[in-house]
Amino acid sequence: MNNKNSTFLLRSPGLTAAIFGSLLLAGCSAEAPESNNSEAASPTHIEKQPQTQASYQPIAIDDFYDAIKHWNDRTGETGVPHYELHQIKEIADNIILYQRDSGGWPTNKHPLRVVPEEEREAALKDKSLADASFDNRNTYPQIEYLSAVYKQTGDERYRDAALKGLRYTLDKQYDNGGWAHSPDRTDDHYYTRITFVDEVMSGVLTFLRKVAAGNPPFDYVDAALKQQAADAVAKGDALVLQLQVRVDGKLTGWAGQYHEETLEPIVGRTYELPGILAWETVPVVEYLMAIENPSPEVIAAVEGAVSWLESAKLSGFRVDRVDADSKRFDFHAVDYDLVIVEDADAKPIWARFYDLETNEPFLANRDGNRVYKLEDVLYERRTGYTWYGYWPEELLSTDYPRWKEQHSR
Keyword Signal, does the record have it (predicted)? Predict the structure, then answer.
């Protein structure tokens, strides 16, 4: 994956599984034997004829790319057997294996791995743990995948697990409309904060909007649950608009975390200081632009955020990846470093964090101290966290202009 000595292009979260092909399917394939078990569903549910494994249609795993990347970064696994994409029941069984009794899922589990027996036994013992999370685009992809498998197979185990996850998601919404990073964890204040980092708020709301509309694969969800999802979206949308940061009376972007009671921007992890975040603002704007018949408040929020992203552009430099000695940290391994290179012709780039009052870009270390140069971020955080990127490019060049034409005042 590394292109050494080349410009390090940091992309938006909307990456396809193909881009991460070597990441997702680096191991050996593990074809399962054909199943001889017919899946008999009741007449009121989906009825499917028995199928051989190879006849199932592959289901996209794009939404798991973050979990898979984190799994690979942390474990350094290579050559481990993986299921093929058409082996949807085996993949779904993996997903159910890691589902907690609460209905949610822990982060960063690789759904395509062939899980060794000792790991499987440990996972079964861990089902009562209170570590389910929406972080790293988690829990809602599992629900959608299980729903899609149910639609193909008619196996009610997958439906029931998906509905359990959906109810968990609905139950964990705060009364004010927000969702925490990891609702059941009490070992750090960070987990209970209303979170925009890693698409917690925008990801959950996008998912629930599809459920409320009954869009496939959620067209099996009953009317009562769809209404609950619609009500949750309405509360969430109102909070998203409320939390947009204003600077000198102008709408800007969104912070990464907010206090669940005061609703003030607040520190997340020690190096995630309160600020306006460019990366996290982009999926929120994309989410708001997808609202049909947007209210004047939604239109104002989009236009304010886009204006802020335009003003937050940085120029005159690029971020390069250069060779370095191989080193493994707790959560990732690297054989490169990142450096700032002055370049008058470089295209605009964005910092991730901007000051809540001055709009000045900043970075930070694990000790919580703010710094203003990439070189002042220690090596582990410099390479283990994304500080600069081009996330708003497509939004500003394509998506927003198209939306603007449709919703001009």
Answer: yes
List, for residues 189-245, the tens digit of each pLDDT value: 999 999 999 999 999 999 999 999 999 999 999 999 999 999 999 999 999 999 999
Q: Are 253 and 196 a contacting pair, CB within 8 Å?
A: no
Give the chain's radius of gyration (CA, Å).
22
Residue with tokens 């101290």: 369
Q: Which two tokens stand for residue 310?
A: 């335009």
* pLDDT tens digits for range 32-91: 433 333 333 333 344 444 455 558 999 999 999 999 999 998 898 878 899 999 999 999
| DSSP string covering 236-276 | HHHHHHHHS-EETTEE--B-SEE-TTT--B---STT--S-E
What phi, psi does 304 have (nearest 5°)?
-65, -45
Name every residue whose Cβ is closer than 8 Å to that of residue 237 and which is 6 or more positions away in sequence. Answer: 177, 205, 291, 298
CA pair distance 260, 194, nearest whole angstrom: 6
Give the Å distances, CA to CA, from 247 to 76, 83, 267, 308.
43, 50, 19, 10
Q: Are 241 and 301 in contact (CB under 8 A)?
A: yes
> CA torsion 188→193→128→85, rounded to 10°?
-120
Lookup: tokens for 257: 């975390």
Q: Which residue has the tokens 């034997």?
A: 33
Which of the two residues, 42 and 130, has the higher pLDDT score? 130
Interatomic CA distance for residues 385 and 101, integer angstroms: 32
- CA 203 vs CA 7, 239, 271: distances in Å: 29, 14, 23
DSSP letter assigned to residue 84? -
Q: Amino acid identity of 34? A: E
Question: 388-389 and 370-371 as β-strands: parallel, antiparallel, unpaired?
Answer: unpaired
Strands (E), 102-243: 194-195
pLDDT in the model for residue 35: 37
